Amino acid sequence: MSLLQNIGKLADLRRRIFFTIGMLAIYRLGVFVTTPGVDRRVMQGHVANAGSGILGVVNLFSGGALEKLSIFALGIMPYISASIILQLLGMVFKPIEELRKEGEQGQRKINQYTRYGTILLSMFQAFGIAAYLESLTNVPFGAGLTGNVVGHPGWGFKLLTILTLTTGTAFVMWIGEQITERGIGNGISLIIFIGIVTDIPDAMNRYYQTNEGNLQPLTIFAVLTIILLTVATIVFFERGQRKIPIQYSRRQVGRRIYGGQQAHLPLRVNTAGTIPPIFASSLLMFPSTLANLNVPGANKLQQMLSPGDWAFNALYVGLIIFFCYFYTAVTFQPIDVADNLKKQQAFIPGIRPGKKTAEYIDRVLTRITLGGSLYVAAVCVIPTIVQEYFRVPFYFGGTSIMIVVGVALDTVQQVESHLITRNYEGLSGARATKIRGRRDLEPTSEDA
């Protein structure tokens, strides 16, 4: 209640929240707009028969847009794939690396290149989806009913599908950027978040229908217990930090002496957040697109990478660990942090300023990232394995829980930041945990 009262006192924060809700509502409305030339009922039957395979994963991240053959069927995955490619190029292609060092102006150019890459990938994937849809004939979608997904296949349908799905992805990308700039939270993450959350009631309904109303209380209790334990684990690790002590040198300005204070440099256990499982899932979906285009060897690769198999889980864990390190290396630069500490006349006790400080921070960050990457991999894979054991007929595993909880925590943290900057005491009143104001944020030995 106090949270709502504090939010109500800030007109700017209210506008941001309502803007975010409005943009997400527009996105959800677009999910129900069907791509021209396809039969939604037949496709829904096909996705339901596919279960928790790769189609189930794609349908989950698109918020059910795939099974409805929506104009947003590609979702935000082409944008994520383009971001991965640009960030990888930044490590091996010098012009991209130089743009990244130019600050805000360089980042704008990189964002523009990411948009161009998103359009190209969307056209490529849309063509693959069109070819795949045309191959779906005599698909069972009801009691003894079969049908074709595409009524009039041909190049006319392919071109129309490419135009529709590419435009839909571009619009979703624009919605995400608008939310990030003018709303609250990360727009791309919130789009995936809302897609997963809105699929929960439908998943529960499918589970009920599959068991014909004969629910298994022990199975439901076990699954709910696993979900609650996973959520608790995520919250614990996402709040976990390694605090490096920092000492500020004393300096005299006129007759006054400043500095000599102690603070901490907080390093998160999971610096990359929810990005690694999203990136890894996006890459693992790519073989299905190649298979739809009849690329030699793609069908065999797709069969090997079926969700739930040991090969899929092993590769998934490897990609998560890689992206944890990769994204941390991209977003956190120990050399820059060491230079900033040196400029502020601050140092880590027992460590020389400059290069030695950067090496120390990098060493500490590498160690905690190992623990963070193993935690992310375990959270994303173990619930899925247990889910396969209990035969729960909907895909809501560790990856989706990780994304939902992580995005929720990040969004709440942004709301708290808005409240802090306006010197509000807390979200739950004076008796509950307080959010420190600006005066309370001065570095001391007890601060985080």
Account of the 3D structure:
It is a single chain. This protein has 2 domains: 1-198, Preprotein translocase SecY subunit (Orthogonal Bundle), CATH 1.10.3370.10; 218-448, SecY subunit domain (Preprotein translocase SecY subunit, Orthogonal Bundle), CATH 1.10.3370.10. It is mainly α. It has helices at residues 2-8, 11-31, 40-50, 54-61, 77-92, 94-100, 104-135, 155-182, 187-198, 200-210, 217-238, 275-292, 298-304, 310-331, 334-343, 355-390, 398-421; strands spanning 139-140, 146-147, 241-248, 251-253, 256-258, 262-268, 346-347. Helices cover 65% and strands 6% of the residues. Helix 9 crosses helix 17 and helix 14 (310-331) runs antiparallel to helix 16. The protein is built from 17 helices and 7 strands. It starts with a helix and ends in a 27-residue tail after the last helix. The chain is globular, with a radius of gyration of 24 Å. The strands form 3 sheets. A 3-stranded antiparallel β-sheet has the order 6-3-7.
Give the key terms:
448 residues; mainly alpha; Preprotein translocase SecY subunit; 2 domains; two-stranded antiparallel ribbon; 7 strands; 65% helix; globular; disordered C terminus
Task: Describe the SSE topology.
Elements (H helix, E strand, L loop, with lengths): L1 H7 L2 H21 L8 H11 L3 H8 L15 H16 L1 H7 L3 H32 L3 E2 L5 E2 L7 H28 L4 H12 L1 H11 L6 H22 L2 E8 L2 E3 L2 E3 L3 E7 L6 H18 L5 H7 L5 H22 L2 H10 L2 E2 L7 H36 L7 H24 L27
Antiparallel strand pairs: 1-2, 3-6, 3-7, 4-5
Helix pairs in contact: 2-8, 2-9, 5-6, 5-7, 5-12, 6-7, 7-8, 7-12, 8-9, 9-17, 11-16, 11-17, 12-13, 12-14, 14-16, 15-16, 16-17
